Amino acid sequence: MAALAGMVLVAVAGCGSGGTPTEEIESAAAWAEPARYAFTLESTCGERWLIGTFRVTVDNGAVAAVEGLDEPARRAVEGRDLTFLREVVPTLSGMVDEAARARSAGAETVEVTVDRNTGHVTRINIDPARNSVDDESCYAVTDYEVR
Fold it and tell me: What Pfam families would the database entry show (predicted)?
């Protein structure tokens, strides 16, 4: 999906809700975060530390554990303490907050996809400035489970 300059694009997986981008981000933000859950996070773009596929466990709104599932992710988490990981690995709510902040700041592209059954975010793509290199955030979420 390509977004025109200044346009915010938000999609809901599996349904055409017809809502505005603001309504869709608010819908994703309204998701009720469980006390404990886990998901697989694939972070694929931008020039940053968080690149690779990670298994993330969240407990009471904070990252409780991170496992690198591929070589880039294993290298990224190796030797890192939980305090550091909590600062750089987002929870699902943290990803939605990042998208909302980007939208408020006038990002060129903000795409949010949520699971229509559970309401949890399944994909977020943010590009603050189309002509800037490596400023994007691209997240895909799979294997979501409440524990």
Answer: DUF6174
